[in-house]
C-alpha cells in the first residue's frame, strides 16, 4: 500500500539518520581520543628528551592529608586520586585540583524553627564531615562547602519541625542521629561522609521560659505539700499505734512529760488537766453526735 510504503520509507530514513549521527559521534570521539593520545605521547617524549630542564616543572608534592585529582585535556585521569608524596604530571596538558581529606567543621547559624506543636525556637548546630572520594567531590558539586552548609541548614529545619518541643528538649541525641543519617544519604553522592552533628544551643522565647518556670515551680510546691502530708499521715498512724499500747498510768506519765517539755515563757501559760476530763468530753461529744443523727 502507498501509505505503508511512505511510513516505511520515513522510518527507514530516520533509522539511517540516527545511525549516521551515532556513527558520526563515535568517529569524532575516536578521533579526539587518538589526538589526545598522540599529544600525550609527544609531550612524554619531549619531557624525556629535556628531562634535566623540565623535571622541576613536571613535579608536584601532595601532602599526607591531600589527594590530587588530575584533569588531562578536560577529562579525569582514570584510577584513584593521586597522592600523597611526589606527583608527576604534564604541565601543559594537565590541570591538578587538590582536595583536603581532613575533617571539616562548620557552624550552622541560628535558625528560626517552628516545632510540631507550634512553638517557635531558635536552634544552632555544628556539623563535622570529611571528603572520602576526591573525584566525586570535584566533579559532582561546584562548591562543596556551600552545598553541604545549605543542606545542613535545610535538614536542621526539617528535622526539628517534625518534633514537638518536649521531644527536642529530651531527645536531642536521637534527633542528631536522624540528621546524620539524612545528611549522609544526601551528601554521599558528592563523595562526602558526615561524621557527627551536634545541637549547640536551643533558645526559647522569654514568655515561654517564664511559663515553663512557673509550671516547674508549681509542680515542685505540689510535690513538697504531698511529701509533708504523707509524713504527717505516717506520724499520726505511728502515734495511734503507740497510744493503743499504753496503759492509763503510762499514758498519764507521757502526758505529764509532754507538758514539762513545753518551753516556759511569759506569753505561754500551761494548765494541766486530768485525763479523765478529756474522756468525759470525748464521750459527751460522741453522745451528741449520736442524738443528732437519730
Automatic annotation (TrEMBL):
Secretion signal, residue range per the UniProt entry: none
Gene3D superfamilies, sorted: 6.10.250.2090, Band 7 domain
GO cellular component assignments: cytoplasmic side of plasma membrane
Classification via InterPro entries: Band-7_stomatin-like, Band_7, Band_7/SPFH_dom_sf, Stomatin_HflK_fam
Keywords: Membrane, Transmembrane, Transmembrane helix
Domain Band positions: 57-216
One family name in Pfam for this protein: Band_7
Membrane spanning residue stretches: 30-57
Highest rank taxon of the organism: Eukaryota
Entry keyword Ligase: no
Entry-linked PANTHER family: BAND 7 PROTEIN-RELATED, ERYTHROCYTE BAND 7 INTEGRAL MEMBRANE PROTEIN-LIKE
Assigned protein family: Belongs to the band 7/mec-2 family.
Function: Plays a role in the regulation of glomerular permeability, acting probably as a linker between the plasma membrane and the cytoskeleton.
Protein name (Swiss-Prot/TrEMBL): Podocin
Organism: Lates japonicus (Japanese lates)
Organism taxonomic ancestry: Eukaryota, Metazoa, Chordata, Craniata, Vertebrata
